[in-house]
């Protein structure tokens, strides 16, 4: 019998890119999964979940909103594990406080508050981000190794107007303070940009960053990002719940590359595609840096090479008709 066969867990924001994979793997392992979505009647958001193996028998969709107090009480009640993944991730925001910071920060405390009301919850796995780790104003160069002891600085985030980064930093910080005070066990997963196949029919922000490159962009950004495969991220969440010795934070970054090198990989994989040739500015390239894999490896995470994730994403974008390759036009 698999580990999850007798256990009930819940996943918040289950319709999202990462959460959909967590739900898929949990069902595969035999767990009973209570999954929250904002609108269970929105077939675009739930159809792919209902079609997962095991969903008919063991998936229970429930309605919950991060901004409604007590909204998650009935979701977490009776669950041994809580995977809190719901949080807005997009860049085109008009009101950062209302659109990003409140749902991330108040929403996380709302979910944790529900956990504190029930004795069933043994561990929370919070989907945080490398955003809450790596932005503290310290220079990042190829020799610098970022690890789980790093924390992003809210003041730096505000100055740079990095609102998503700020939202994740404030949310994770508040979560740790809350669980320490209440004596609740929590582990955080801190992934970099997540890529790989989409289960959901809608376009998520990290997959959109690849779509932009293959969809006729003239330039690539002068930016350097870490990347990680969505299946590795989902597995890490489950390992963090199942492994009794898991604790603290786990950064997940397979590789850090400048966009120029990211485009190079795309060009090798898809030589016939029109890909950006030039950088968006004439400044020196933003340097790479390293992120430690030690803790993630100790958890049992195996890292899928970046090339595989890029290919999976492009193939998925084609299959879901977000992109038509040149030969098919
Ligand atoms: N993708 C990445 O590169 C990446 C990297 C590091 C960390 N993360 C973190 O991973 C998590 C999931 O990200 P994702 O990329 O999978 O994004 P996604 O596909 O956009 O999913 C976000 C989820 O959050 C839910 N949500 C947003 N606002 C909500 C609200 N007010 N109430 C309830 N649910 C709400 C969305 O629900 P609806 O479907 O109803 O909109 C959606 O299910 C987030 O915590 C994000 O910060 C993502």
Automatic annotation (TrEMBL):
InterPro entries: Epimerase_deHydtase, NAD(P)-bd_dom_sf, NAD(P)_dehydrat-like
Superkingdom, taxonomy of origin: Eukaryota
One example GO MF annotation: dihydroflavanol 4-reductase activity
GO BP terms, alphabetized: flavonoid biosynthetic process
Pathways per UniProt: Pigment biosynthesis; anthocyanin biosynthesis
Pfam families: Epimerase
Catalytic activity: (2S)-flavan-4-ol + NADP(+) = (2S)-flavanone + NADPH + H(+); a (2R,3S,4S)-leucoanthocyanidin + NADP(+) = a (2R,3R)-dihydroflavonol + NADPH + H(+)
Keyword set, alphabetical order: Flavonoid biosynthesis, NADP, Oxidoreductase
Domain NAD-dependent epimerase/dehydratase: 9-247
EC category: oxidoreductase
EC number(s) reported in the record: 1.1.1.219, 1.1.1.234
Coiled-coil segments on the chain, per record: none
Family recorded in the similarity comment: Belongs to the NAD(P)-dependent epimerase/dehydratase family. Dihydroflavonol-4-reductase subfamily.
Function: Bifunctional enzyme involved in flavonoid metabolism.
Record-given protein name: Dihydroflavonol 4-reductase
Organism: Perilla frutescens var. hirtella (Perilla citriodora)
């Amino acid at each position: 019998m698999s580990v999850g066969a007798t256990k009930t867990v819940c996943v918040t924001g289950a319709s999202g890119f990462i959460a959909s994979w967590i739900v898929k793997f949990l069902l595969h392992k035999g767990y009973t999964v209570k999954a929250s979505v904002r609108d269970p009647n929105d077939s675009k958001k739930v159809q792919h979940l209902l079609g997962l193996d095991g969903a008919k028998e063991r998936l229970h969709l429930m309605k919950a909103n991060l901004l409604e107090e007590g909204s998650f009480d009935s979701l977490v009640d009776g669950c041994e594990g809580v995977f809190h993944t719901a949080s807005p991730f997009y860049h085109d925001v008009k009101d950062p406080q209302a659109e990003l910071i409140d749902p991330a920060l108040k929403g996380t405390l709302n979910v944790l508050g529900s956990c504190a009301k029930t004795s069933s919850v043994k561990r929370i796995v919070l989907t945080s981000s490398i955003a809450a780790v790596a932005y503290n104003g310290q220079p990042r160069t190829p020799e610098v190794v970022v690890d789980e002891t790093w924390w992003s600085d809210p003041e730096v985030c505000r100055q740079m107007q990095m609102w998503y980064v700020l939202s994740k930093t404030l949310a994770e910080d508040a979560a740790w303070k809350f669980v320490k005070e209440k004596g609740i066990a929590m582990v955080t997963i801190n992934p970099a940009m997540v890529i790989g196949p989409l289960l959901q029919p809608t376009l998520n922000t990290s997959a959109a960053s690849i779509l932009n490159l293959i969809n006729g962009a003239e330039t690539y950004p002068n930016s350097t990002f870490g990347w990680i495969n969505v299946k590795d991220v989902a597995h890490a969440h489950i390992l963090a719940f199942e492994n009794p010795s898991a604790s603290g934070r786990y950064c997940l970054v397979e590789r850090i590359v400048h966009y120029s090198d990211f485009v190079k990989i795309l060009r090798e994989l898809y030589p016939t595609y029109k890909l950006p040739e030039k950088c968006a500015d004439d400044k020196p390239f933003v340097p790479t840096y390293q992120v430690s894999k030690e803790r993630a490896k100790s958890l049992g995470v195996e890292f899928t090479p970046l090339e595989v994730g890029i290919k999976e994403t492009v193939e998925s974008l084609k299959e879901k008709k977000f992109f038509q390759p040149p030969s098919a036009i």
